[in-house]
């Protein structure tokens, strides 16, 4: 497996004067885990909650990249007020991912821990 340098964050620890990596953190969303369906569901629940039109999976795919702020900015209809955009951001933040969503991600992705194990 190849891991792009911009997708990993390494934490160095001091081990007797030698630097060793003690932790590697990976951004697995969309790289190892397929979360587009869950992101679409969460975004659409949030959009509906604040009275905005929901988006298709293909639309959400085109909105992804550059973080949640950009996702929400791209998802709102043109001309949406800053106040209404803030309502959407709050709805999205509080909607969260429930246990069923996490189970869907695990089923689609297979055993991601096997991909990351060192043997």
What general outline do the C-alpha atoms trace? elongated
Binned, the helix content reads: 40-55%
CA radius of gyration: 18 Å
The proportion of strand residues reads 5-15%
Sketch the topology as an H/E string, one letter per element.
EEHHHHHH
Which sheet architecture does the biggest sheet show? 2 strands, antiparallel
Report the strand count: 2
Structural class: alpha+beta
Your description of this structure?
This protein is α+β, with helices and mostly antiparallel strands and 119 residues long. 50% of the residues lie in helices and 14% in strands. The chain has helices at 36-49, 57-63, 67-75, 82-95, 99-109, 112-116, and strands at residues 8-15, 18-26. It has a two-stranded antiparallel sheet. Strand 1 and strand 2 (18-26) form a beta hairpin. Helix 1 (36-49) crosses helix 4 (82-95). The chain is elongated, with a radius of gyration of 18 Å. Residues 1-7 have low confidence and may be disordered.
Record the SSE blueprint.
Blueprint: E1 8-15, E2 18-26, H1 36-49, H2 57-63, H3 67-75, H4 82-95, H5 99-109, H6 112-116
Antiparallel strand pairs: 1-2
Helix pairs in contact: 1-4
Summarize the structure.
With 119 residues, this protein is of the alpha+beta class. The chain contains 6 helices and 2 strands, in the order E-E-H-H-H-H-H-H.
Which features characterize this protein?
119 residues, alpha+beta, 2 strands
């Amino acid at each position: 497996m190849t891991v792009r340098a911009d997708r990993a964050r390494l934490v160095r620890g001091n081990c007797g004067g030698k630097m060793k990596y003690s932790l590697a953190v990976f951004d697995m969303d969309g790289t190892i885990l397929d979360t587009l369906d869950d992101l679409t569901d969460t975004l659409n629940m949030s959009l509906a909650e604040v009275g905005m039109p929901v988006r298709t999976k293909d639309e959400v795919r085109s909105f992804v990249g550059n973080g949640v702020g950009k996702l929400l900015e791209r998802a709102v209809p043109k001309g949406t007020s800053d106040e209404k955009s803030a309502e959407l951001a709050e709805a999205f933040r509080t909607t969260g991912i429930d246990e069923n969503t996490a189970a869907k991600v695990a089923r689609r992705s297979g055993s991601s821990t096997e991909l990351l194990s060192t043997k």
